[in-house]
Amino acid sequence: MQIRMLTYPGSSLALGPAHAPARPASLTDGLYARLRHGIVAGELRPNQRLVEIELAERLNVSRTPVREALQRLALDRLVTSHRRGWIVREHTKDEIKEIYECRSALESYAARLAARKATTEQVDALEVVLQRGMDDPRPPKEWMVEVNDAFHDGVIEAAQNAMLADLCLRSRLYYFNNRIAELYMPEEAMASRSQHLGLLDAMRRHREDEAEDLARIHVATALRVLLEKLG
Question: What is the CATH number of domain 5-88?
Fold first, then answer.
């Protein structure tokens, strides 16, 4: 299948099978997933206009599924209506703080459950993930998103709570969560890795209180770095 590109000034959005669900329940679901990926990955930038008719023409679909996809993205607080159209939402510092407060509550509890329930195989797999980042010769900003996401996904999976996993995922679906990796200095990246190692050790030893505290500190550190870099 040929990959079609949706291009806006200063960015491009790949709309091929790599960004779509394996079996979308509907055309709207597929468009929603593709547009959401473009926003979260930073391919569609904050305050960028999203015009229904242009999207429909470029994607060779009617305006109805495009409108439905954009309405769903609005419920996710990823786009907002603007002058009878839509733009990618730019979050204020206060909104970012609120999102990270939710992440702190969710991910710290996930870490507690992971320390209680994680198997040896799951902990070993997370250790491999962190080692992959350590061995990567590229600058941290080029591997941090991949390694960070894989580690946090593994912790959440080890918590063995499907509802909590869904809430954790939704709380991370914002462009600034990806952008933060580009903003880390090497020493900040190493500090983040050290926190990951501490959490991993707490999981291996089944120290629930310690795992919960470390996860909360980790999210707070990420928020502090993000706000400092954003000015």
Answer: 1.10.10.10
21 within 8 A of 15, measured Cβ to Cβ: no
* C-alpha to C-alpha distance for 146 and 27, rounded to whole angstroms: 28
DSSP 37-81: HHHHTTSS-TT-EE-HHHHHHHHTS-HHHHHHHHHHHHHTTSEEE
Q: How many residues does the chain have?
A: 231
Instruction: Check residues 179 and 166 and name the one with the higher pLDDT.
Output: 166
Is the CATH code 3.40.50.720 the one for domain 93-230? no
Structure-token pair, residue 205: 């030893």
Domain boundaries, the chain: 5-88, 93-230
Model confidence at 47, pLDDT cuts 50, 70, 90, reads very high
pLDDT bracket for residue 25 (50, 70, 90): low
